[in-house]
Give the backbone structure.
Amino acid sequence: MRSAVVVGTGLIGTSVALALNARGVTVYLRDTDPAAARIAESLGAGTTTAPTAAVDLAVMAVPPALIGRVLADVQTAGLAHHYTDVASVKVGPREDAVALDCDTAHYIAGHPMAGGERNGPLAARADMFEGRAWILTPTSDTDRETLNMALELVAMCGATPVVMGATEHDRAVGLVSHTPHIVAALVAMRFEQAEERAVSLAGPGIKDLSRIAGGDPELWVDILGANAVVVADILEDIGVNLEDVVTGLRAMAATDEAKRDEGRRGIGTLLRRGKAGRERIAGKHGSGPGSYRTLGVLIGDQPGQLARLFTDASRSGVNIEDVHLEHATDQLAGLVQLSVAQTSVPVLEEALRAQGWHTQ
Amino acid sequence: MRSAVVVGTGLIGTSVALALNARGVTVYLRDTDPAAARIAESLGAGTTTAPTAAVDLAVMAVPPALIGRVLADVQTAGLAHHYTDVASVKVGPREDAVALDCDTAHYIAGHPMAGGERNGPLAARADMFEGRAWILTPTSDTDRETLNMALELVAMCGATPVVMGATEHDRAVGLVSHTPHIVAALVAMRFEQAEERAVSLAGPGIKDLSRIAGGDPELWVDILGANAVVVADILEDIGVNLEDVVTGLRAMAATDEAKRDEGRRGIGTLLRRGKAGRERIAGKHGSGPGSYRTLGVLIGDQPGQLARLFTDASRSGVNIEDVHLEHATDQLAGLVQLSVAQTSVPVLEEALRAQGWHTQ
């Protein structure tokens, strides 16, 4: 790949442009908002001048509802030899492209599993996709060169390509991303009018659960609208379980002991199923290279504790995959949970204990 | 306070015992499981021998459903001058105590806002309550000496006392703790049977949202059962909003444009309300000493990056309240979100930039 056009210089588009530019690709930037394109240019993502000939790849980084229309336009203009997109849903845009009679052989739909709560080119970074999954949804009519061009794009961004069907993709992201977003909002909205004293009791649990509800509402309306039926179906299933939970909880408050026991059993089953699902999400039961375990380390409330811990941990050579702090609101005393590869736990534990850390 | 009995040497009871013991209080340990009491003793939490005279304070750290019965028993035996508990709900235990004709003047119900996903005495630590809120629910007949004894307990544990009514407490913890637990389980359980490929797409959002679903199901059945009606009421409200969301999503998939717009408006309103609630939970709009802001710092994927970052941050003298990593599953390249007091942001930002860090 020698040249590319990025259509839409928001967070994802600009990050793609930065990554390609860093690999020596000539990147042309386009946005309906010229200011956004100029910001991306000023960040070193490419040029806002127009290409003089067809580029190798056009990457459409526009909302899902616009993909079909934009694809038809840029294909008519002969902008590129190959086309892809980075939209977070895949079925609807493909249907639009087919309806608009696009050249689907030279268009492969993609979706990098990355993003953030901040939007716009200023939040973009070249390493946004490093180590992330990047889903590609080739069809039987996809040109092999187009597939290879998309694979090159994914490789240049440091991501891992994952091939899926469009329907399978939309169901999966509905489950891991869109539905959680709605659920986080449903819980978080209770706090809009809650008493200050109740809000002040919010601890790490509700803070982590509600974090994604902080995303941009306008952006998320677009994302959810493009996968509306899938998300509605999943939410309806959750609604059925929710009704069972309410029934179970009310049974637990009954005077009749048999009824209370029935309620307990129902709630117990729900919680066990939730725990089993959580363990899969956390990768605790995996056996592949991605499976990890958590090591707890106690730290005091002196300012330098985290620094000392990470210095000691990095000397062990073990790669820390995730960090979670369980601690007070105003102080840092508490438990640091370090997630590391299953096989690295003994190494890290020994290294930290040798430095006087208390692990658990 | 010179002497105390801790009844129930689980995670919370043993942590209380460790804190009191560290302050020179003679602590007597009791548990229906003698092995649990001996483990707590071996950790330095106190002695498993019986007191020879009434102690100053008895702390009941048993499940909510047992508080009334245990209080009646220990008061009949004259175990202590004053009594408190650490149960996570307050209305039911108080009703039980009244029904069993307990001496309610010398019993003040309490609830430290701390805990963890691990249970049992081995996970206990003396600093578990440091900086946390510890709710006390005195009533009009509470003896002043009993209130003072409980305040001394809270101070010895390093926590901050918060006085609330029992009903207000149960509603608040239903909102910040019990309901989120159920909701996390409802989402996580979808992953029990999900395809491996869908599970492999799980990113930081769903991981954070589902974390609390990893808690012990048996323990949580007890907690939820003791606050069942409050949680059922909140979940029913959520269920109503959930139905509206499903209606809104289906409208967004309609062919009729007016209907689609109506759906968009409904979903947009939900997401904006969720974001407003989230901002209160995260303390972003607070003005008190507890309000904080997040500073993003870009890090590379070399092993020593986190250590270097925390060393540089600690040299700035700024207290880091929370840390969140947004990064790849297998590598640590990405964005570290540091939460610090609003007033400390410029100090930290300047210190980190001077060391060559990219902040945003």
Summary: The CA atoms of residues 112 and 134 of chain B lie 4 Å apart.
